[in-house]
Write a structure and sequence with these properties.
Helix content is about 50%, strand content about 15%. The protein is α/β, with parallel strands linked by helices. The strands form 2 sheets. A 6-stranded mixed sheet has the order 1-2-3-4-6-9, sandwiched between helices.
C-alpha cells in the first residue's frame, strides 16, 4: 500500500505470528527490488498483522534442512535483508508483540525502529541448536555492542522494548495505539527532505562503517561532492538564506 510516498508492507500470517517462510522471503525480495526502482516510493514501512511483528523463521521449513540447504537458506535471507538495508530509501520497522529470530533480524535491517512499550525481542536460535542466520550476529553486535550481542545470542533470552531502547536497538517507544501513526509521521518527515542526500547518508554510513577511517572519509567526501552538484543543494541553501522551508525535487 502506497500512501504519501510511503510503501507499507504488512506481514500477514497472523496465525503463524507472521513467521518468515521461504515464500514470504521471496515476496519480500521482490517488493524490495520493486521499491528501489520505483521513484514514487520514498520510504518503506514494515509492520506485522495480528499480535506480533514477526516471530522468526518458519520452524516447519527449518526442520528438514541439511547442512547445504541451511547454508543456502541463510544466504538467501541475508540477501533479502541486505536489499532492504541498501534500498537507498529510509525504511522503518514498526514493532509490536514479538520480534524473535528472523523477525528481530528483519527489524535490524530497517533504517529505523519504533516499538510499543510491550514489544519483546530475542535471538533464540541457540535453543534450536542453530545460530541467527539472516545477519543477526553481525547487525546486533554493530547496533548494541559485541558484549551485549554475545549475551543475547548465547543465552537466547528475551529482552524488553525498554532494554532495546536503552541499548540503542530501538529508536523510539510508542503506545500501541500510536505506533503506526508515529511511524508514518516520522517517515513523512523524512520524505520531505532531499532524496539524494538521504541516499548518500544511508550509503556512507552502511558502506563506510567497515572501511578504514581514511577510506570512509573519502567515501563521505565523494558523496558530499555529489550532493553539492544537485538542484536540491541549491534549493536547500537558498531556502535557508531566505528563511523559508526548502522544497526538494530529488534532482
Amino acid at each position: 500500500m502506497l500512501e504519501s510516498g510511503i510503501l507499507q508492507i504488512t506481514l500477514n500470517r497472523p496465525e503463524q505470528l507472521n513467521a518468515l517462510s521461504q515464500e514470504v522471503l521471496q515476496r519480500l525480495d521482490e517488493i524490495f527490488h520493486q521499491a528501489k526502482q520505483d521513484r514514487a516510493v520514498k520510504a518503506v514501512l514494515l509492520h506485522g498483522e495480528g499480535k506480533a511483528f514477526c516471530a522468526g523463521a518458519d520452524i516447519k521449513q527449518l526442520a528438514p534442512l541439511n547442512g547445504h540447504e541451511g547454508l543456502e537458506f541463510a544466504r538467501f535471507g541475508q540477501a533479502v535483508f541486505r536489499r532492504l538495508e541498501l534500498l537507498g530509501k529510509p525504511s522503518l520497522a514498526a514493532i509490536h508483540g514479538f520480534a524473535f529470530g528472523g523477525g528481530c533480524e528483519l527489524a535490524m535491517a530497517a533504517t529505523l525502529r519504533i516499538a510499543t512499550k510491550t514489544a519483546v525481542f530475542g535471538q533464540p536460535e541457540i535453543k534450536l541448536g542453530v545460530i541467527p542466520g539472516f545477519g543477526g550476529t553481525q547487525r546486533l553486535s554493530r547496533l548494541i555492542g559485541k558484549g551485549r550481542a554475545l549475551e543475547i545470542c548465547l543465552t537466547g533470552r528475551r529482552f524488553t522494548a525498554e532494554e532495546a531502547f536503552h541499548w540503542g536497538l530501538v529508536n523510539e517507544l510508542a503506545a500501541p495505539e500510536d505506533l503506526l501513526m508515529r511511524a508514518k509521521a516520522l517517515l513523512i518527515e523524512l520524505t520531505q527532505l532531499g532524496s539524494i542526500a538521504l541516499e548518500s547518508i544511508l550509503t556512507t554510513i552502511h558502506q563506510g562503517y567497515d572501511l578504514s577511517l581514511e577510506e570512509a572519509f573519502e567515501l563521505e567526501a565523494a558523496h558530499f561532492g555529489l550532493c553539492c552538484a544537485t538542484a536540491d543543494k541549491r534549493e536547500g541553501v537558498k531556502a535557508f538564506l531566505e528563511k523559508r522551508t526548502a522544497v526538494f525535487s530529488g534532482e
